[in-house]
Amino acid sequence: MKFKSICLIFIISFQVSFSQETILSQEYLEMEIVQKAIKQYSCRASLNTIMKSFKSGSDYIYFMKKKIKDMGMPEDLLYLSLVESSFNIEATSRSGARGLWQFMLNSIEPHNIFFDQWVDERLDFWKSTEGAMEKLAYNYKVTGDWLLAIAAYNCGLGKIVRTIEEHKENDFFKLIEIGAIPDQTAVYVPKFLAFSYICQNAKQFPDFRVSFPRIEWERIELDHSIDIRLLAQKADLSVDYIKIGNKELKGYITPPSRDNYYLKVQKRDRKIIQKIINKHSSELYKKKEYIVQSGDTLFSIAKKEGITVEILLKTNKNIDYKKISPGDILFIPIFADKEEETNSEENKYVIKEGDTLWSIAQKFNVTIEEIMNQNNLTVDDILIIGAVIEIPRKR
Prior knowledge:
By secondary structure, the chain is mainly alpha-helical. Helix content is 43%, strand content 8%. The protein has 18 helices and six strands. The protein is elongated, with a radius of gyration of 25 Å. The two termini are 49 Å apart. 34% of the residues are buried.
């Protein structure tokens, strides 16, 4: 039977068995608002959209599903990402939320998710999935109910707690009936339940199937910055292939000032990539020689070259920072090239020699405060040549 472009009129009794590992229950399926949501999202157009979403997130869905289970969370929370981002890792909302789980910048700090000149880890599928589960687990601990925990993910935990206290009620559907739940959230939770039902019972819908490949990911901890283009060359892989696992990178350089950056690679590639990193460590970033001059200090050299002393020391591990002398040769990492400077995205800017927050603000007709807020910077942060910052869009 072929679907028309209108939604199905359900003749389904919703008699389905659910495991204890899922949030969806027979009780929820009997709620009129949930049945309406299922009818709405089971029309041909919506089913096609869901299948496209699974294709869009095919690189990450197996990992997400397994991570959710491994963290002891209800397995159908996977479909909350379908609601949030359509499994699009680069999804960006009008309010600025980003990634598979749509984190706002002001909500990332408790979850080990970083945002700086080098990365936007809201696009890190590994960290964002862990962060979302941590957030939902805490919501559940506070509210004692999964639907309220999911509602809190949408409108804020504080809002839900105040609503429960004000109305002396902790039943999500009763709170909807009395108009205590924000309109958007009153749609959001039934949509999640509908997606959960549809995806777990795909065979009930003609010409509809949800599937994804079993792609296993592993992490390699880096103790210094690398250029993934050079890594790709040595591994005989495409840069785009490596970037699939590391969408959080704003360019091609892993963060130079961090000790805990993890490069994510497919399990099948782990051995060869780990071997290349171990064996050719010093060849995985561009660098130039610097001959120490009279009067030089590590601080003055770093400032002159647009890097930090920490990066300088990491690149030259054998030097004694107290005893550099004229004529000594240091290696200076290069984090930018002409390709990056000319081909950056419209609202991205690659830091160049001589740049300051003031000069960049003047160039793009924005304020220093707007640049700092957009990039989580402070006035004391050093702008490293080759780093990528976002330029606030003019309203």
